[in-house]
Design goal:
about 0% helix; mainly beta; 4-stranded mixed β-sheet; 13 strands
Length: about 180
């Protein structure tokens, strides 16, 4: 940290008035830190020197997919589903907090039955960035609504031709048929 010389001898190098010669820096010390270093010779003469220590966080957040993989989301009665990024991944970083983007993911009937690859980014307080791709399987568990069922038809012969109106069904989306 400090290069020291003396005509006679070097006694002790400490931080400020403290007898401590080591200091630990962490995330709360990001940026420029000013230290006062005291150099004392064998005859107890001392000099104080100001030293700047710059602490930089270059480590991006760590992202891991939450179990199970792929994650399954179920479409609701409006044929839509959402899930948050925090439900899809676990994020950790030595210098919290970590911001996940996007915060939520939306799916609709066009995604039904597909496994969608969702990309999530994580940025920490030092602007370090990491990304992960998480598979999400979109499922529809809501049954269609039957609007018309033809009446039962009775025939007298096994080879009779039968005519009937086809049944109809619809999916109700956001209150519309």
């Amino acid at each position: 940290l400090v290069n020291v010389s003396d005509n006679c001898c070097i006694g002790q190098i400490t931080l400020g008035a403290s007898s401590d010669s080591n200091v630990t820096f962490g995330c709360s010390n990001r940026g420029t830190n000013n230290l006062s270093v005291r150099v004392r010779d064998c005859h107890d003469r001392s000099t104080f020197v100001s030293v700047q220590v710059v602490v930089v966080d270059n480590t991006p957040p760590v992202l891991t997919a939450s179990s199970p993989t792929p994650r399954v989301v179920y479409l609701d009665a409006q044929c839509a589903a959402t899930i948050t990024s925090t439900a899809l991944v676990n994020a950790s970083d030595a210098c919290q907090p970590v911001v996940l983007t996007p915060a939520t993911h939306s799916f609709n009937g066009l995604n039904c039955g597909d496994t969608i690859q969702v990309t999530i980014s994580a940025r920490d307080a030092s602007q370090n960035l990491s990304t992960i791709v998480v598979p999400v399987l979109v499922q529809d568990m809501i049954r269609p609504v039957v609007n018309y069922v033809p009446a039962n038809v009775s025939v007298g012969k096994c080879d009779a031709l039968i005519y009937y109106n086809s049944p109809s069904a619809s999916i109700i989306v956001a209150g519309k048929q």
